[in-house]
Every structure is written in C-alpha cells, then in structure tokens.
Amino acid sequence: LGSSSDLQVGEDVIAIGHALGLEGGPTVSKGVVSALGRSIAVDPVTTIVDLLQTDAAINPGNSGGALVNTRAQIVGINTAIIPGSQGIGFAINIDDVKVVVAQLLATGTVERGFLGINIFSMNPGLANQLGVPVLDGVAVAAVRPGTGAHAAGLREGDVIVQLGNEPIRNTGELSKFLINHLPGETVDLVYFKRDRRVETEITLGTRPSR
C-alpha cells in the first residue's frame, strides 16, 4: 500500500479492474492523477469526498480495482465515473481506505460514531427554505429520540456546519468524521437553528442493529 497524501497532480497511475466484465482476465489502463480532493454527489443524501480524479480509463467493472503508481503501490480504489464524460474517473484515496481496512481486520465490522439523524447535503434552495444563513452544511431531515443528536438539541430543519474542529460542508465530510470518531466520544457541535448559531457538545452513540 502507498500513501495518497504523497500524490501529486500529473503523476502517472494505472487502473486495474475487470472493465465491462470482458473475458480473459483483468485489464489495465494508464493515465495521470488529474486532481486531488474531489467531491461528487451521488444523490441528495450521499456525497463522497477526498477522491482522486484520474484520466486512466475506468469503466463499469473497474469498481473495487486498484489504482497504482509506478512503484507498484496502491494509492486508490477505483470507484466512480461521470456518465457521458471522457477521461474523468474517481478513486477512493488509500489513506481513507486504510482506516476502514484496519477496523475490518480487527473486528470484522466498520465501527463509527452515530448521531441519530437523517440528513441531506445543503444547497441554495434548501438554505432558503430552511431560513439559514449558510449554503454549506448538512441539513437534518429527522432526529431519533434518545440519541446524542436529540440530547444536543438538534431537530428537523437544523443545519450542522461543524463537528470537533472540522467544518462539515456535506454528507461525505460528516461520514468521514464519524469513521474517525468512535461511539462514546464527546465532540463540539456547531449548527444553525434557522438564523441562530448554536454551539454545544454531542456524545456519539452506537448505530443500532436495525
């Protein structure tokens, strides 16, 4: 395994995978690192952050394959393309993958902090509807009673903008924060309740089994 934090734009990479499920074994395609730290919105609820962008050809069937550098080090896991585009593919950076892999090897599951909310990434229309003075953040669609979010005062329509010392601009950044902060940890929370900024603390819980 390599380190994605050492990557530079323009560096040569090779994507490995089973493109289109063609017979005869895996395929490889060569390209460069086109950009670092990309974010893509999969849907209104899901954003993937800190992706590597590459122009190495990635097609359906490549997902889960390795993106490697010229020193045979895995620097990313091929993940997504933008339909209709050419030369725009994305890989999860290997530094984020290592966190998940370590948990899977240790316990067989990925443990992460749990807030107890349903969420949407913010957009200008939603900001206007909720009456909040921010365009970035995570809007709360629902809150489970008895969770850390409920105890911290979060309610439907509130917008989370910071956890700990980290800005939370979309659902991807929230998900990444919760992977790195385990149940039982208490962190600072900043959110907007309409035009009022609220600063408090929240204790992360454990995701229920169902």
How many beta-strand elements? 14
Q: What is the beta-strand fraction?
A: 35-45%
Strand order in space, largest sheet: 1-2-3-6-5-4
**Dominant shape:** elongated
Q: Radius of gyration from the CA trace?
A: 19 Å
Give the distance, in angstroms, between the N- and C-terminal Cα atoms.
Answer: 34 Å
Name the helicity range.
10-25%
Secondary-structure content class: alpha+beta
| Main pleated-sheet profile | 6 strands, antiparallel, barrel
**How would you state the average pLDDT, rounded?**
90
Low-confidence parts lasting 5 or more residues at pLDDT below 50? none
Number of helical stretches of at least 4 residues: 4
SSE string, helix = H, strand = E? EEEEEEHEEHEHEEHEEE
What does this structure look like?
This protein is α+β, with helices and mostly antiparallel strands. Helix content is 17%, strand content 40%. The protein is built from four helices and 14 strands. The protein has helices at residues 94-107, 124-130, 148-151, 171-180; strands at 12-17, 27-41, 47-54, 66-69, 74-81, 89-93, 113-114, 117-121, 138-143, 159-163, 166-167, 186-193, 196-203, 205-206. The strands form three sheets. The protein has a six-stranded antiparallel beta barrel with strand order 1-2-3-6-5-4. Strands 8, 9, 10, 11, 12 and 13 form a six-stranded antiparallel β-sheet that branches. A hairpin with a 2-residue loop joins β12 and β13 (196-203). The longest helix is centred in the middle third of the chain and has 14 residues, at 94-107. The protein is elongated, with a radius of gyration of 19 Å. The model has no long low-confidence stretch (mean pLDDT 90).
